[in-house]
Amino acid sequence: MLSLALLRHPLYQRFRRSSVATAPSTAYPPTEPLSAQTGRLPWRKTFIALSVPNFRLWTIGNLLAMTAGWTQRIAQDWLVLELTGSATAVGITVAMQFAPMLLFGLFGGVIVDRYSKRMLMVITQALFAVLSLGLAALALTGTVEAWHVFAIAFATGLVTVIDNPARQVIVTELVGQRNLRNAISINSSVFQLAGMIGPAIAGVLLLTVGAGPAFAINGVACLVVIGMLGMLRTDQMTRLAPSPRAKGQLREGLRYAKSKPTIVYPVILIAVFAVFGLTMPVLLASYADDVFDVGPGGYGLFNSMVAVGALVGALLSTRRASIRLRTIVVCVGATGLLQLTAGLMPSIALFSVCLVTVGVASLLFLTASNSLVQMSSNIGIRGRVMSLYVLVLLGGQAIGGPLMGVIVEEFGAHTGMVVSGGVPALAAAIVAVVLARRGQLRLEVRLRRFVPWVSISPRTLDGV
């Protein structure tokens, strides 16, 4: 009775409440309130993130690096095709470049959360420069073999394990949270503008001087980027406190991502799209070489058509007022159907038009998923979350490259394109049904002038 009386005593109850309140929490950190730009921006503020001097300098360096990187990638794929005459070998090159992310990508996120993103990028750009200049020397001296390209592609992929999540997260340090969504869209625009310029440059170089100069250009561009990173004003950056070294950080990041619908469903759709929909180098090389017989110039043209559409999509994404799960589902479904349609086109003109529309839809999907995942994750764990995102984005291509290469060689380029679009479209339909069954999305079919229209709308705001 005495012990029961003590347990009920007000002083004990106050002590108990104090102990519970001050006990360390083992729960995963919630998403912090974000001072983010909401609503549709006026036209004059379409590129508002560029008003930040550091981000403006970063964007210039990023455009240079991405353009040179696209130039090297197109030249690299075509060089392998020339050396081997095999679409499967091109797929192996893609796999070598992205396999390290599949194997070690999550560990890259842990490293990015622990160290300075700017310092990490200086190191990665220096390593990229060494690898590109080494490949240039082999190509220019005429001693390059396919296995050299495979090995350097694999080494480049190892460096990307750190570089890519660091590149994603450093944007927050440059612009802060308020303009983060706009900055992500601008980054995507830069990537796609580079994807339009780089393949065109690669096509000219391949027709005139060969692949070697393309690799040399990329090496020099990496050195220039190092100089631009050194010019960033660190006193104007929103520095993120590094995560302390602790056990279980990798598992913590995975459990955190799994617990949030706005992270896990985009990651699932990105994984499927990366394996099947992002294997364009393999498919377009086959269309240029086997279907339309237009050579390296046509290969560069096809890549540029995708990039033109993607640039339009990136610019449209800067005008997007909000991003929800339904945005992700609709965009990946539309991309898959458009890519499937491209596989059925009988002429270069129609095929090129379809590639532009594929570029628009795919970029809207990619920027929406990137933004939703970043905005849904706590800043202290964002490096690990983004490493998971990058893992499935790049690692999926490591699986998809050889897979699509085999499909193209066994069944033809047209079948490969149909498969690359049909599977993501099917995945979007399955996710839409799952979310509808869980009460997070509502599927509606309405008749407009006797034509059925399917719409997806949120049933509740939670997780959408």
TrEMBL record:
Superkingdom of origin: Bacteria
Domain annotation Major facilitator superfamily (MFS) profile: ranges: 46-439
Membrane topology: Multi-pass membrane protein
Family matches, as CDD domains: MFS_MefA_like
GO molecular function: transmembrane transporter activity
Residues passing through the membrane, by range: 47-70, 90-112, 119-140, 146-163, 184-207, 213-232, 263-287, 299-316, 323-342, 348-367, 388-408, 414-436
Keywords: Cell membrane, Membrane, Transmembrane, Transmembrane helix, Transport
SUPFAM superfamilies, per database record: MFS general substrate transporter (SSF103473)
GO cellular component: plasma membrane
Record's subcellular location: Cell membrane
Protein name: MFS transporter
The species this protein was found in: Mycetocola zhujimingii
